[in-house]
Design a protein that fits this description.
Blueprint (H helix, E strand, L loop, with lengths): L2 H17 L33 E3 L2 E3 L3 E3 L7 H17 L2 E3 L4 H5 L17 E7 L9 H11 L3 E5 L2 H6 L10 H11 L4 E4 L7 H6 L8 E2 L8 H10 L14 H11 L5 E4 L5 H9 L4 E4 L4 H6 L1 H22 L4 H4 L5 E2 L2 E2 L1
Helix pairs in contact: 1-8, 2-12, 10-12
Amino acid sequence: MTDGGIQARKVKHLEACLYGPVEFQTIRTGFADLTLPYRALPETDLGSVELTTSFHGRSLQAPLLIGAMTGGAELAAIINRNLAAAAEELGLGLMLGSQRIMLEYPELAASFQVREHAPNALLIGNLGIAQLNRGYGAAEVDRAAEMINADAMALHANPLQEAMQADGDTDFRGLLGRLGDLVENATCPVMLKEVGHGLGREVVTALDGVPLSAIDVAGAGGTSWARVEQYVRHGEIIHPDLVEWGIPTATALAQVRAARPEVPAVASGGIRSGLDIAKALAMGASAVAIARPLLAPAIESPEAVVDVLADLLGQLRAVMYCAGVTDIASLAQVSLSRGTHHV
């Protein structure tokens, strides 16, 4: 695919996410089935709730990341700049979209180079793990990080999304071993993520001993990238069962935390409220990432993005206050329940 073809597909992805019914229709995140204890006498003060935390060795004003979205097109440049400015203003982290296009076509790198708009923010770059079967290795990962002055790199696993593309990168053979080698040899921290169909127990167990800097479970319940690709390719959903397949976010988070408790976990995939964020943090997530709800605001302005994020953080503070906790460490000690069974 030429650079023009890749750019066109990036724009079609954005259009599908903005205007199409691309969220899961039958799978939910699972957070609605979990209860965070509510305390009528919480012995807390809303004004004293503190959200600060650390992730990837950086201080964050809240355990919230702007999730990976886009890059490589003119509209993507606007989106990424506005997201970066919002992350800087609120002291949050920012994950960028796949940088493969900028490595192969350096003239398109500007849409990813947002450090000037977020000089102090945690910035995480992104490449597809399938590229490890096309000659990519530690050198390419380090170069992608250096080109944007990133603090870490995420490798995204997306076999179902690739299978829905006309010319997807569908050779995933040997990637467990190649990922292990890459993490050992890269100079930048490397985390693993899905794109919205879930990372579960089997995968992270198979990576036992690989010193990943974090794992983003990117579970099912939010945007289905299989749906996105079918809209982009066919203009409609032609395989309704396939686009509704994945590990719900809460399930994926529980499995990853149980299998690799020593690795920081990011919860993403359909998290849409402060209560969802609080539940994910109580389950052991070190941070939560949110993407699609910020897409339309990011086209508008940094201020529009800040408004959405500030509202979510206000909800999180209210939840923590009513749960009787005043900091993130205390929230992580709260037990959720499913009926009478603790999670």
